[in-house]
C-alpha cells in the first residue's frame, strides 16, 4: 500500500478556499485516492475520491497531478463547520459505497 503524508495542521480564513495537499509518491497504477474528514467526536465522513482525473462534488474538489504522486483537496468556501481532521487514504480497490 502507498504511504501518504500530509501537513499536521493548516490555518485558513473563513469564506476562502482551502487547499489541503497530500503526498503519495509510491502510489500504484490502480490505487484510488480517498479523502475523509472527522469532525470532533463524530465518525469519519467521506469527502471525495478519484483515480486519475480531477473530481468535483458538492463538498470539495480533488486535483490529482499527472504523475499521481500528489493530490490536493480543495474546499471552495471554508466555514467553521469544515473544521475537522482530514485524512488522505490510498486504496487498491474501489468500493461503491451508498452515501
Automatic annotation (TrEMBL):
Gene3D superfamilies: Immunoglobulins (2.60.40.10). Its main location: membrane. GO terms for cellular component: plasma membrane. Signal peptide: none annotated. GO terms for biological process: adaptive immune response; response to bacterium. It is found in: Cell membrane. Pfam families: V-set (PF07686). Residues 1-99 form the Ig-like domain. It comes from the Eukaryota. Keywords: Adaptive immunity, Cell membrane, Disulfide bond, Glycoprotein, Immunity, Membrane, Signal. PROSITE patterns: IG_LIKE. This is Ig-like domain-containing protein. It comes from Macaca fascicularis (Crab-eating macaque).
Amino acid at each position: 500500500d502507498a504511504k501518504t503524508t500530509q501537513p499536521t495542521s493548516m490555518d485558513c480564513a473563513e469564506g476562502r478556499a482551502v487547499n489541503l495537499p497530500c503526498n503519495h509518491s509510491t502510489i500504484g497504477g490502480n490505487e484510488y485516492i480517498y479523502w475523509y474528514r472527522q469532525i470532533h467526536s463524530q465518525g469519519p465522513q467521506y469527502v471525495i475520491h478519484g483515480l486519475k482525473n480531477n473530481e468535483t462534488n458538492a463538498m470539495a474538489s480533488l486535483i490529482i497531478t499527472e504523475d499521481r504522486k500528489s493530490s490536493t483537496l480543495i474546499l471552495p468556501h471554508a466555514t467553521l463547520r469544515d473544521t475537522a481532521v482530514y485524512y488522505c487514504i490510498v486504496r487498491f480497490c474501489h468500493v461503491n459505497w451508498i452515501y
